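Protein modeling request. Please complete all fields; requests missing the sequence field cannot be processed.
Requester role: graduate student
Desired output: 3D structure, token encoding
Chains: 1
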Amino acid sequence: MSVQLAQDVTNDLGIYLPLVVMFALAAAFAVFSALLGPLVGPSRYNRAKFEAYECGIEPSPQPIIGGGRVPVAYYLTAMLFILFDIEMVFLYPFAVSADVLGLFGLVEIFLFIATVGFAYAYVWRRGGLDWN
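Delivered output (132 residues):
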């Protein structure tokens, strides 16, 4: 009885082998890339490499210890991008299975889009999309 149980467990775990191999290859690639980058890449000192890069911000003439401050607008823009980009992640599964979900799925997706639309209108009215 216990031999049969051990074989069943081994057979059931065998279906996860491709997933384990994929994670092992991903981890090996990550470690390989992290270790190989500094060895292969250029290592010459350049003052510009150590300066903070902010798109659209003029660098100050005198160096700022700690890299300086980043305007909050950059973080707000990034968070809004993530918020509205995640909407697409939720819409893809609906697009794939729209025929299976039928009218219920259509109503649910319209409610979801309406909720995100209200959030978009709120952010717009509050001035979150102003680039000034």
